[in-house]
Write a structure and sequence with these properties.
Rossmann fold, Dihydrodipicolinate Reductase, domain 2, 6-stranded parallel sheet, Oxidoreductase domain protein, oxidoreductase, 2 domains, alpha/beta, Gfo/Idh/MocA_oxidrdct_glycsds
């Protein structure tokens, strides 16, 4: 393990995708931000500004007060959603970042694609696989690049974990455990009149909002896609009467590798990903939240090595990758087709929770 460990952890935060020189970029990708919720204001806009490859130029939201507030703080053009959809200021941006409720992704992606703009859409892509396929088709038919916001894929900790797995440090992977939980009504706001609790806007709660993280990060780390899923959901508190408050699910990967995942919107804050192999365990803890430093450890034969590395701004890395790939003319790994596999898996978890039977992903509805 020592040689491989040293090789893959040297310069831990290296951008192995970067071929351009950030200092040489004079014309970064101009981004229109659609949706000005807390994540866009507190994380996306700062991430775009920190990236050498991107700059925000336009913002829009159904909440006119949010647009007014953001444009007062930053030198940005604010427009209404109707003005954005009409392309009124389309000459002021090259790409569109969409951070609206899940069920509204499609309409904004269709508008951006019709304008010939590259798209970075938050995950999950939409509320159903069918709507997600329409979204992907809109970009494909317009021949515009589509990236999906799987920020874990550009986080150096996740990329180094994948490197170590590829190098055989863990030996043969046998199973994965992943968990993600939060007290949503405490951390994201106590108001129960929010879109995550509306199944028509969200498509679901614990599985859709949190489950996509262990699902996609495990796919990325293993370099494989699940072939079967099973799941269970439950809701105990009135605020979650229409959606799933807690969930557990199993992802079956080729080679009889199982990923066992638990997620909750009403439990103590936690996030962890552990990959166990015949030779070692690789652990990310904390793993998934953008506002926490990631922890990285390797455990072998009773010896644990915790890696002390310089933390990065996770959203800066995501937007840097987005802008870099566009400027370099390179494709995205986390494209629309990649995201459709997640949509089928998420739908399969819900179907399994309803029927009590596992779902082969080729049969997921």
């Amino acid at each position: 393990m020592d040689a491989a460990f040293a090789e893959y952890l040297d310069e831990f935060t290296r951008r192995d995708w970067e071929t351009l020189a950030p200092d040489a970029v004079t014309d970064p990708i101009r981004v229109a931000v659609v949706g000005l919720g807390w994540f866009a204001r507190e994380w996306a806009l700062p991430g775009i500004a920190r990236s050498a490859y991107t700059e925000a130029t336009v913002v829009t939201d159904v909440d006119a007060a949010a647009v007014e507030s953001v444009t007062a703080e930053r030198d940005l053009t604010g427009v209404t959603p109707d003005e954005f959809r009409s392309g009124a200021v389309a000459d002021e941006y090259d790409a569109v970042y969409i951070a609206t409720p899940n069920a509204t992704h499609l309409e904004y992606v269709e508008a951006a694609a019709a304008q010939g703009k590259a798209v970075l859409c938050e995950k999950p892509l939409e509320v159903t696989p069918e709507r997600a396929r329409r979204l992907v088709s809109a970009c494909r038919d317009a021949d515009v690049p589509l990236m999906v916001g799987y920020r874990m894929q550009t986080d150096p900790a996740v990329r180094r974990l994948r490197d170590l797995l590829d190098a055989g440090v863990a030996g043969e992977v046998t199973h994965v455990h992943a968990t993600m939980s939060q007290t949503m009504l405490g951390e994201l706001g106590s108001d129960t009149d929010q879109w995550r609790l509306d199944p028509e806007l969200s498509g679901g709660c614990a599985v859709m909002d949190l489950g996509v993280y262990p699902l996609n990060t495990t796919r990325f780390a293993l370099g494989a896609d699940p072939v079967r899923v099973s799941g269970r959901t439950r809701s105990e508190h009135e605020a979650f009467a229409d959606v799933d408050e807690h969930a557990s699910f199993r992802l079956e990967f080729p080679g009889d590798v199982d990923a066992l995942c638990t997620v909750s919107q009403n439990a103590q804050h936690a996030s962890r990903l552990e990959v166990t192999g015949t030779d070692a365990r690789l652990i990310l803890d904390p793993a998934f939240y953008e506002r926490e430093d990631r922890g990285f450890a390797v455990v072998r034969d009773g010896t644990r090595v915790d890696v002390d590395f310089e933390q990065v701004h996770q959203i800066e890395e995501e937007f840097a990758y987005f802008g870099h790939q566009l400027l370099a003319g390179e494709p995205f790994h986390s494209d629309g087709e990649h995201a459709l596999t997640d949509m089928d898996a998420l739908a399969g978890v819900y179907e399994s929770a309803e029927t009590g039977e596992p779902v082969d992903l080729g049969d997921a509805k």
